[in-house]
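Annex B. Sample input.
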Amino acid sequence: MRRELLIKQSSEIRGMFGRIAHRYDLLNRTLSLGQDVGWRRVVAERAAAVPNARVLDVCTGTGDLALTVGGDVVGADFCLPMLERARGKAQRMQRVLPLCAADALSLPFADGVADVVTVAFGIRNFADLEVGLRELVRVVRPGGVLLVLEFSRPKGLFAPILGWWVRNVPPRVGRLLSGDAEAYDYLPASVSTFPEGAAMCEVLESAGLVDVTVRPLMAGVASLYEGTRALEAR
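Annex B, continued. Sample output.
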């Protein structure tokens, strides 16, 4: 795998997702055994707990989470082929989904524009995690909620089996279905070095969130982090 991907150079990450956009949904369903649909539903339910929320879905990809959330939601992503897939999906579903081409590290939105900001499987790819998280917090209104769904390392009785799956199956199946060997070598490599659990909660708190919690999903294969933007001092 090229160093440019390992250090998460933005142009390389954008290009990688562009190359696999045509198989992204199929691979998500295949590699998670369909569990990714339920994970996104959990995020959508948490977003729905905020009444009449304006939702911004960052790193929206093909729009799966944004379309699950529904309502007053805007999707943003820096990869045009992914946004094209999201637009086509929304049209087929006869749904209105405003989309914006935007880099998560420099979002073209005003401070506090959203009641809820969501991001699914995106922050692991930020070239600068601290900068990206502070940008996500910036666009949440004070008292609003940030919801982050991300891969983590499995725990518990089934951890050895699930860990073997994450390390070995994505590269093989991803290579077969997408034709891009590098993209799915990147997945387990990026998960293995990314902060998770309590460590990730500390990172989110340092970005300006309070009341941060983590909810492991499927024995910790994925985790849902939730935090509230601190109210500004009066």
